[in-house]
Design brief:
The protein is mostly helical and 674 residues long. It has four domains: 144 residues, Up-down Bundle (Glutathione S-transferase Yfyf (Class Pi), Chain A, domain 2); 243 residues, Neurolysin, domain 3 (Orthogonal Bundle), CATH 1.10.1370.10; 65 residues, no CATH class; 167 residues, Neurolysin, domain 3, CATH 1.10.1370. The chain contains 26 helices and seven strands. The strands form two sheets. Strands 3-4-5-7-6 form a five-stranded mixed sheet, sandwiched between helices. The model has no long low-confidence stretch (mean pLDDT 96).
Length: 674
């Protein structure tokens, strides 16, 4: 294939991938040529007659794999955001090939010998700080990938990596299929009582798209809880929706989880670690299993106590409807009732003030301008990977072009659940490239002619994911592997969580929170009640999060050879032992649809959200109390942390902003755990 658009660098602005030219049949040949080209580039490094130098080894390695990087960046997002059966076949074929390709590089003894020689002489090389860090990180990557293992151990490691890659892809595809199959099909609008007219119309339109004309379909989001549970007044419909959610992929992914946990434990032992969790955490900011375990266990008891207090309030409200025992499908519904009665905050009544376009332009983009001076201009003439995805050019305060931002905000049958940020082009002074980043959300498409109104959760998610986007856009490093979000898992969520604060900052909230029909601002007293209501439900949210986190931890602290007979029994036992077997609060993700840890790189690292929140809550306090203006504070945060990526120790970047070590007190206060 000679006219494959991936075979040459894009000539579009910022090297935006030429999506108008890309076809499904281009991916596999591009992957195959990309891997072959990089292996040839590695061979040129190892076969060089010249003695190893930083330039001919480390810089050459950093420059290798251009074609593979181009196709992989586009494909990974395309498969998630607009998947097809053909792309699933490509993904299933390519994932073990990529694992083998990674091993071919990191288990190349000649390449490692050159890196190790340079590492041994690193003090003599006269390298600047970022170059020295590149050498140190590359050396660590090789060692963690098994470069020092013997031949037999490396052969087994290759087998483990290939099988795990294939199983992870299968797990993901099983979740996608199970989520589609479990969508709740309803016969009448009466069953949707409690939803708004717009939501009911959207459910009818969703049914048409999914092949159920005349009916109503509620598609599932990726978490255990579904947003409609807070408003559906028919208890039997709530129960059906929750049952469909909790049962996803139970028959297919339970055995896969067992197999993957066993293989990961074996691989960790091969690499000299007591468990997969120990292997993962050794390269995170947490450092040790004990540090993570200590934080998580310390939160369980106060979180459960907080949740039980909330449950008592909900039980009173449920009793008024004749319900004697609060179930999982009741929690969100009666939480909303209590929130309305105690705080006079009706989440459904808030939505007309959170129209997507206004939130995006007058909230998300406005906050970025306040803090960092950047501006955004939509570029409709630039083609993205799907008609719903929109391209914006980003400019510095002085008008200097910075990069591109792609926003793809609506759910569709071809998109996996959840929300994420990705990079299509990575910033690097070495390559001269500027960033192209994207955000994907799953906001339900409104009925034709109607505006998209956000829930409070969707609103926070929009600000959160844009925090990741800013991390990528503001990257200012020489070497691409350090850019933006290429930081440890337990640090990457920190900047995105900080960005959530702008959703409720008075000057930002007042700018975007206006009724989509009347233009009236969100009433001041409602803003005050929202702030008071923020603390309500923290018990539930902390327990459901900790349950998922400690479930991930249980799966990945198993020792090599430990037998697990049944995934559901293992899950129940793990939650009971953690003190989190609260029947009315299922984990945010159950094992069989826990894509973060079995398919998306967060294995033994789902703790990252709460670990990052320690830094986040402390930084939000810094923004509020440091005596600087918003713009001055934003400049410090950008320069010292967002721009630096992984080019230095992330905790050093945190200290450069806040001026000290992290403090857990703001997190405990935010979570109601004091």
């Amino acid at each position: 294939m000679t006219e494959n658009p991936f075979f040459e660098a894009s000539t579009l602005v910022y090297e935006l991938p030429p999506f108008a030219e890309i076809r499904e049949e281009h991916y596999l040949p591009a992957y195959e040529r990309g891997m072959a080209e990089q292996l040839a580039e590695i061979a040129a490094i190892t076969e060089s007659p010249d003695a190893p130098s930083f330039d001919n080894t480390l810089v050459a390695l950093e420059r290798s794999g251009e074609l593979l990087g181009r196709v992989r960046a586009v494909f990974d997002n395309q498969a998630a955001a607009d998947g097809t059966a053909v792309l699933e076949e490509v993904e299933a074929k390519v994932s073990p090939l990529l694992a083998a390709h990674h091993d071919a590089i990191h288990l190349d003894r000649a390449l490692f010998a050159r890196v190790e020689e340079l590492y041994g002489r690193r003090a003599e090389l006269g390298l600047d700080g970022e170059s020295l860090r590149l050498l140190e990180r590359r050396h660590a990557d090789f060692v963690r990938s098994g470069a020092r293992l013997g031949e037999a151990a490396q052969a087994r490691l290759r087998e483990l990596n290939a099988e795990l890659a294939a199983l992870g892809t299968t797990f993901q595809q099983n979740v996608n299929a199970a989520s589609r199959a479990a969508a709740l099909v309803l016969d009448s609008a009466e069953e949707l009582a409690g939803l708004t007219e717009g939501e009911i119309a959207a459910a009818a339109a969703n049914a048409e798209v999914l092949g159920h004309p005349g009916k109503y379909v509620l598609s599932l989001v990726n978490t255990s809880g579904q947003p409609e549970l807070a408003r559906l007044s028919d208890r039997s419909v709530r129960e059906r929706l929750m049952t469909a959610s909790l049962g996803r992929a139970a028959d297919t992914n339970g055995p896969l989880a067992i197999r993957m946990a066993g293989l990961r434990a074996e691989r960790a032992a091969l690499l000299g670690h007591t468990s997969h969790a120990a292997y993962v955490v050794a390269d995170e900011t947490a450092g040790t299993v004990g540090a993570v375990d200590g934080l998580l266990r310390s939160l369980v008891e106060p979180a459960v106590a907080n949740a039980r207090r909330e449950a008592a309030e909900l039980a009173e409200a449920a009793a008024a409807d004749g319900i004697t025992e609060l179930a999982a499908h009741d929690w969100a519904y009666y939480s909303e009732k209590v929130r309305q009665s105690s705080y006079q905050v009706d989440e459904a009544a808030l939505r007309p003030y959170f129209e997507l376009e206004r939130v995006l332009h007058d909230g998300v983009f406005y906050a970025a301008n306040l803090a960092y001076g950047v501006t955004f201009t939509e570029r409709p003439e630039l083609t993205a990977y799907h008609p719903q995805a929109r391209v914006f050019e980003v400019f510095e305060e002085d008008g200097t072009p910075l990069g591109l931002f792609i926003g793809d905000f609506h759910a569709r049958a071809s998109k996996r659940g959840g929300a994420w940020m990705d990079s299509l082009v990575t910033q690097s002074a070495l390559t001269g490239r500027r960033p192209v980043v994207l955000n994907n959300l799953n906001v339900a498409s409104p009925a034709p002619g109607e505006p998209a109104l956000l829930t409070w959760f969707e609103l926070r998610t929009l600000f959160h994911e844009f925090g990741h986007a800013l991390h990528g856009l503001f990257a200012d490093v020489r070497y691409p592997q350090f850019a933006g979000t290429s930081v440890p898992r337990d640090f990457v969520e920190f900047p995105s969580q900080v960005n959530e604060m702008w959703a409720t900052r008075p000057e930002v909230l007042a700018n975007y929170a206006r009724h989509h029909e009347t233009g009236e601002p969100l009433p001041a007293e409602l803003v005050e009640r929202m702030a008071a209501a923020e603390g309500f439900g923290q018990g539930f949210r902390t327990v459901e999060y900790l349950a998922a986190t400690l479930l991930d931890w249980a799966w990945h602290t198993v020792a090599q050879g430990e037998e697990i007979a049944d995934a559901q029994e293992f899950e129940a036992r793990a939650l009971a032992e953690a003190g989190l077997a609260v029947a009315a609060i299922p984990p945010r993700y159950r094992t069989t649809y826990f894509q973060h840890v079995f398919a998306s790189g967060y294995s033994a690292a789902y703790y990252a959200y709460i670990w990052s929140e320690v830094l986040d809550a402390d930084t939000v306090r810094w923004f509020e109390t440091n005596g600087l203006s918003v713009r001055e504070s934003g400049e410090v945060f950008r320069r010292e942390l967002l721009a630096r990526g992984f080019s230095r120790d992330p905790l050093e970047s945190f200290r450069a902003v806040v001026g000290r070590e992290p403090d857990t007190a703001p997190l405990l206060a935010r979570r109601g755990l004091v």
